[in-house]
Amino acid sequence: MKSPDFPPIVLSPCGHSFCAKCLSMHVGNQRKKLCPYCRQNIASSAVNLSLQRLIDSFVSLQDRRQPTPPQPPQDEQDKAHFLNKLSAAETRSEILQKELAAAVERRKLLESELCNIDEFYRRLKHRQAETRERLRKVTADNESVDKEVKLLENERAEIQKHMAEENVRSALVDSSLTELKTVHFSTFTSQFD
């Protein structure tokens, strides 16, 4: 197996591969054959079969990849087959166009629905922000009222404490006064007796 454009690929003892024609042109009339790449002496060379097979398979793959031009119908049967395929392709094209139009329509409906949802979302976010602000104000007002209630409770407790002290004082004064009245009254009555 040889590639169509190059003679066999040869492998030098140093491990480099060259086409045989290129190597012989490079070496020419030199007494020593030297590798063009690493300058080592080439005493012998062998065909690099694995590289040659790789090149051949690549070339054949390239040949298979190139599209063949369409052949015109040669007889009535080929023509009918071609027309059937063309008709099937046109039918399929019409079906796909209808499916595409339906998909475009569904997409428009979904976009409209998405716009409505986005608008509702914006309104809810605005309402949420307002509600949070009101809640913040109510919370602050509640905290203020709580502080005032605590102050009033403390003030009330203080007043109740003073009232209890005053009640004790009043009771002492009243007791002293009663005692004084009793003592003075008995003294006063005993003087007139």
Task: Summarize the structure in words.
It catalyses: S-ubiquitinyl-[E2 ubiquitin-conjugating enzyme]-L-cysteine + [acceptor protein]-L-lysine = [E2 ubiquitin-conjugating enzyme]-L-cysteine + N(6)-ubiquitinyl-[acceptor protein]-L-lysine. InterPro entries: RNF168/RNF169_E3_ubiq-ligase, Znf_RING, Znf_RING/FYVE/PHD, Znf_RING_CS. Residues 1-39 form the RING-type domain. The structure is a single chain. It contains three helices and three strands; from the N terminus they run E-E-H-E-H-H. A hairpin with a 5-residue loop joins strand 1 and strand 2. Helices cover 74% and strands 4% of the residues. It is mainly alpha-helical. The chain has a three-stranded antiparallel beta sheet with strand order 2-1-3.
Q: How would you state the average pLDDT, rounded?
A: 85
Distance between the termini: 167 Å
The level of helicity is over 70%
Strand content: under 5%
CATH fold group of the domain at 9-65: Herpes Virus-1
CATH class of the domain at 9-65 equals Alpha Beta
- Residue stretches low in confidence (pLDDT < 50, at least 5 long) are none
Structural class: mainly alpha
**Discrete helix count:** 3
Q: Spatial order of the strands in the main sheet?
A: 2-1-3
- Topology as a string of helices (H) and strands (E): EEHEHH
CATH superfamily of the domain at 9-65: Zinc/RING finger domain, C3HC4 (zinc finger)
For the biggest sheet, the summary is: 3 strands, antiparallel
Kindly state the number of beta strands. Answer: 3
Task: State the shape.
Answer: elongated
Give the CATH architecture of the domain at 9-65. 2-Layer Sandwich
Using only C-alpha atoms, the radius of gyration works out to: 57 Å
InterPro entries: RNF168/RNF169_E3_ubiq-ligase, Znf_RING, Znf_RING/FYVE/PHD, Znf_RING_CS
EC number: 2.3.2.27
Protein name: RING-type E3 ubiquitin transferase
Main location: nucleus
